[in-house]
Amino acid sequence: MKVLWVHAHPEPRSLSGALRDEGLRTLHGLGHETRQSDLYAMDWNPVVDRADFPRHAAGRLVVTTASRDAHASGLLSEDIRAEQAKLRWADTVVFQFPLWWLGPPAILKGWFDRVLVKGFAYGVRDPESGRTLRYGSGGLAGKRAMAVLTIGAGGPSFGDRGIHGSLEDVLFPLHHGIFWYTGMAPLPPFAVHGADRLTAEGYAAAAAGLRDRLRELPGTEPLPFRREDSGDYDEDSVLRPHVAPGRSGTAAHYVR
């Protein structure tokens, strides 16, 4: 495999940093190729602004249009083009981050905002039908993505009746709204709970669990989301009445 590891934690000596190092060592030992984007070490700019699109330095900025045009003409800022080149190279992408306020740190959200531009990751059209490709298709179709995350709270509080909501629902915007929307097949996440209270024994177990997940990565089945082009959705992108009867919310968009 060709694995891009995108890491978003400000402290290299953190639990996240240790797990990242363990993960990359494991992948190398298994013979996989790796590249890394350590966003804090790179001093990654997470803010979309006019500097991303040199030809749109004046006038009203419409980000979707400006990003599409800059991508098509090869004139996106150099840092964005470098990250897109890594994505093109990879067949699997690991996004590692601590869960802050039930989402990724701003620096990673900004990576998504700036790198996954229109015409590259989304807003791509089928040349034959003219249909916009998304939710199972798109600019990143054929790739797979997995979240590796550390969480301060214990596992039960992220269960079906846990106060934070199920981890599946918390990660739905990432798995479905970013990975699946752009065509990347989302793999089940790897989560370490109680991160702020982890003992040496707890770290050893977490590292072993991560190594096991990475060994199994080539054959891991993705989350079973419905494709938009499957016929399950109507012209308003709403599930047809006969699909997943009795289910609503995020659960209805899984094939189960």
Automatic annotation (TrEMBL):
Keyword Calcium: no
This protein's UniProt keywords: Oxidoreductase
Region (Disordered): 218-256
Bias (Basic and acidic residues) ranges: 218-230
Listed Pfam families: Flavodoxin_2
Residue ranges of domain Flavodoxin-like fold in the record: 1-212
Family: Belongs to the NAD(P)H dehydrogenase (quinone) family.
Protein name, entry field: NAD(P)H-dependent oxidoreductase
Organism: Streptomyces lycii
